[in-house]
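Tokens in:
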């Protein structure tokens, strides 16, 4: 009831629901968290008008809900919720909250890449990784997690050359004081740029057309197959 009142105030926001659900998820109360997130989404989507800030907070709620469904072994629904997150962000990328939205977009693409990896859909995972790297806007300022995931994808796709390149980029990002500069130089200098667009997986899927932030990102962790999570990456970049 308190969350509903907070979200229904003059400035409508899904943040109370997201924070409450994140708390429940940290205590492994995933069914309860799901109910909270559903309630939050219902309250916000029924609002007659939504500001840019409320749309961003709703996108964060959908992302949290996706992770909750993932924890409950409901991957199809999780992927659909990640898609809802991206749609909200695409509709609100020309406002004062665009920068925060761009970071959430990059992290959502990474989340989707990891979800596809878990379901052994490696070509889809690689596609999401490519989109995430093009965004170059992970919330902690480093693409090390993304390169690490791509290295694992390359291993499963039996592409040792790509795996080696991704490991090199992961190491450079992890230890660099200026991760974005490393990325820009490495991306242009290496063959990775070509792999994103012209590898057979891209053509197979899409034809030949080319077509308080840290608190949120560390409050709900993705199910981890990697040895390092986003909270660890924040500690490296501080």
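Residues out:
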């Amino acid at each position: 009831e308190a969350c509903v009142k907070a979200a229904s105030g003059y400035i409508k926001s899904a943040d109370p629901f997201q924070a409450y659900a994140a708390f429940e998820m940290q205590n492994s109360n995933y069914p309860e968290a799901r109910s909270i997130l559903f309630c939050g989404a219902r309250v916000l989507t029924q609002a007659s008008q939504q500001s840019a800030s409320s749309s961003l907070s709703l996108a964060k709620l959908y992302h949290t809900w996706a992770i909750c469904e993932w924890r409950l072994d409901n991957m199809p629904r999780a992927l659909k919720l990640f898609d809802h997150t991206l749609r909200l962000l695409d509709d609100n990328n020309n406002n004062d909250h665009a920068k925060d939205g761009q970071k959430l977009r990059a992290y959502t693409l990474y989340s989707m890449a990891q979800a596809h990896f878990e379901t052994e859909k490696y070509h889809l995972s690689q596609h999401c990784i490519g989109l995430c790297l093009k965004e170059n806007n992970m919330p902690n300022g480093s693409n090390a997690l993304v390169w690490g995931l791509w290295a694992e994808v390359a291993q499963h796709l039996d592409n040792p050359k790509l795996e080696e390149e991704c490991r090199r980029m992961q190491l450079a990002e992890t230890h660099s004081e200026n991760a974005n500069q490393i990325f820009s130089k490495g991306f242009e200098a290496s063959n990775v740029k070509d792999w994103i667009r012209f590898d057979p997986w891209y053509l197979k899927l899409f034809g030949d057309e080319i077509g308080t932030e840290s608190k949120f990102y560390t409050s709900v962790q993705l199910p981890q197959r990697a040895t390092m999570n986003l909270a660890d990456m924040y500690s490296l970049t501080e």
